Amino acid sequence: MAKMKAKKTAKKPAKAKKTVAKKASAAPKPKVVAKPQPAGPVLRGLRSTIFKVGDLPRAKEFYGALLGRVPYFDQPFYVGYEVDGAELGLDPDVANVPAGPGGAISYWRVDEITASWEHSIGHGGSPVEPPHAVGEGIFVALVQDPFGNYIGLIQTAN
């Protein structure tokens, strides 16, 4: 009997399974639900603050310095400044409504309340309330313009 030679069969290394990293699935986007708009003559957002002023050239100088810009509308009967989507208007007609405190104060957003308060006073404003905290990282101050109008300043946390 002849000896049989055992064939050596080399085992092929097992193929490594390719693993494909799955992309992390993004969190599902929340559904945007349109808020119903109130109907009727309701207040929808602050748009303008208009100050009565007895001396329009002086008011333009004062507010031009405080805002660091020139008016977009400049007529003898009205001067308007666009300020980040809001409007500051200067109205020289004081026949029916005089210049000065009228019970409403508009607060203007500022980046640094103390610097803005000092800047306002340095350009002819009078101090009414120095900068102070009102909670949750919000600071307010109040100055009076040369015509008696109150100007609120507000610095928010963000």
Derived from helix and strand composition plus strand pairing, the structural class reads alpha/beta
Biggest β-sheet: count, sense, barrel?
Answer: 4 strands, mixed
CATH topology of the domain at 48-155: 2,3-Dihydroxybiphenyl 1,2-Dioxygenase, domain 1
CATH 4th-level superfamily of the domain at 48-155: 2,3-Dihydroxybiphenyl 1,2-Dioxygenase, domain 1
List the keywords.
158 residues; alpha/beta; 2,3-Dihydroxybiphenyl 1,2-Dioxygenase, domain 1; four-stranded mixed β-sheet; 8 strands; globular
Condensed summary:
The chain contains 2 helices and 8 strands, in the order E-H-E-E-E-E-H-E-E-E. With 158 residues, the protein is α/β, with parallel strands linked by helices.
Descriptive overview:
The protein is an alpha/beta fold and 158 residues long. It has a domain at 48-155: Roll (2,3-Dihydroxybiphenyl 1,2-Dioxygenase, domain 1). It is 14% helix and 29% strand. The protein is built from 2 helices and 8 strands, in the order βαββββαβββ. A 4-stranded mixed beta sheet has the order 1-4-3-2, covered by helices on one side. A 4-stranded mixed beta sheet has the order 5-8-7-6, covered by helices on one side. A hairpin with a 2-residue loop joins strand 6 (126-135) and strand 7 (138-144). The longest helix has 12 residues, at 56-67. It is globular and about 60 Å long. The termini are far apart.
What topology emerges from the helices and strands here?
Blueprint: E1 48-52, H1 56-67, E2 73-75, E3 78-83, E4 86-91, E5 107-109, H2 113-122, E6 126-135, E7 138-144, E8 150-155
Parallel strand pairs: 1-4, 5-8
Antiparallel strand pairs: 2-3, 3-4, 6-7, 7-8
